[in-house]
């Protein structure tokens, strides 16, 4: 079995890189300055997950398609795991304090608990905890 850890780089178009950088920093995520510029910010979610915040003009360099209006349309729901119910509430609380919004009520299914926040540009991040006993079967 390979020990290679595949990574995911989620690229998001944003209106204001500096404001989005401040938002994700307020959530507790560091910025990798090596891969950040005035029109990009590399947000380190974990060792294998990076969110690249790209000014719309820079984002357009990577696609010939129209850039979705993330406030009025949904192309993707990004789901982040959390180690506990309290950590779900903590992260969503930080997002709301930093200017994000909560697009729906919490979903509590006993062994699974989740909430969501929209960032400053309307990208939806779900935050979910699942009872480890359920995950292990």
How would you briefly describe this protein structure?
The chain is an alpha/beta fold and 137 residues long. The protein has four helices and seven strands, in the order βαββαβαβββα.
Question: Can you describe this structure?
Answer:
It is built from four helices and seven strands, in the order E-H-E-E-H-E-H-E-E-E-H. The two termini are 22 Å apart. It folds into two domains: 61 residues, 2,3-Dihydroxybiphenyl 1,2-Dioxygenase, domain 1 (Roll), CATH 3.10.180; 63 residues, 2,3-Dihydroxybiphenyl 1,2-Dioxygenase, domain 1 (Roll). A four-stranded mixed β-sheet has the order 4-7-6-5. The relative contact order is 0.18. Strand 2 and strand 3 form a beta hairpin. It is α/β, with parallel strands linked by helices. The chain is globular. The mean pLDDT is 95. Helices cover 23% and strands 31% of the residues.
CATH architectural group of the largest domain: Roll
Biggest beta sheet attributes: 4 strands, mixed
Q: How many domains comprise the coordinates? A: 2
Total helical segments: 4
Per CATH, the class of the largest domain reads: Alpha Beta
